[in-house]
Amino acid sequence: MEYLNRTFDRFVRWAHQIELLGVDIHPYLLFLNLGVVVSLVLIFVYSAVIAPIDVVVYTAIFVVVVIGYENAYTDLKERLISTKERNYPLDALVYLLPVGLVLAYGAGLDIGVIAPLAAMQLAVSNGFTRIGCFSGGCCYGRHASVGVEYPDHIFTEHDGFQAFSPGANPHGRVFPCQLVEMIGQFSLFSGLLIYLLLGNAPSIALLVVYLCGYAVVRFLNDFTRQYTHRPTYGPFTEGQVISLCIFAVGVPFLVFWFGISMYITALSQHQLFPGISPYMIQTSLVQCSPVRNCELFRGRKPWPTEINTDSGCWDLIHGSGRAGCCSISVITRSRLSWTLSSKRTLFP
User: Fold this and answer.
1) If you write DSSP's letter for every residue of 11-38 in order, what string do you get?
2) Pairing mode, if any, of strands 23-24 and 232-233?
3) Read out DSSP for 178-202?
4) Best CA proximity match to 107, nearest among 73, 67, 66, 59
5) In this predicted structure, what is the pLDDT of residue 272?
6) Which of 34, 70, 148, 276 could share a disulfide with 8, CB 3.0–4.6 Å?
């Protein structure tokens, strides 16, 4: 344990000696921006390896969201709640995800395809940010025999384009709960990446899985965290309350989503649509868009590059219980094509 403590202490001292082009850079801001850079690179990797997306459009949206976060959003927070401090779960739910997904939808990107990418970006960027929290002296845990003892000189505020305010000096060894959350975030990132690399289809459900997974990690980890200024609600911290809200909404959504998926798989096994995979039926039902050129059947290789619908997608979600006439022509990268014309009663 003593070796572990010395390792933590040495890392913090080393982090505060880092220079970039001869200029001292605060370790929190270093790891924060490193997470942003990795998230940016992840866009290109995701498009090349997992699911092709419009990299230029998504990258532009990503840059707009990040700049808006560091300027307009934090300024608005200061006017409304008198603080510019970053609050990961709140900021992700109030600004990062809503603004990013709305802009992506407006730009014509497929939310189902980019949602897992957004989840992995949140996970990897917050994982690096938690290393910055650990080295910068904020978000630390309660006093413990195993942990880090911060030197007094690091507890000074950093102003500028990116501001940073450390926590109060704990004057003693504290548990590194920031590293626990870092492990949780990188584990969620790795799980999503492996799941998609195994050939599974991207969907918005994976974003909800990530949020629920994070909620579990945050809820449990906050029992070890020492709050000095954040509000508490009864026995729970602010982060725990937000985590409970995420879980309360996310779990029913996932139960519904995977329940529908299992039912659609059962339908496909009864040959209601011979030759069409369960994923194709599921995508059609969930997205159910009565517009031309709706992009169906994504998530499986070979990837469709052109899909046209003559009379709209199936209208099961709207309660009719019947599938409309739907003529779908699919041209894949391997130049295979087929046409499905059907009018079937799925729920007689």
Assistant:
1) HHHHHTT-EETTEE--HHHHHHHHHHHH
2) unpaired
3) HHHHHHHHHHHHHHHHHHHHTTPPP
4) 59
5) 44
6) 148
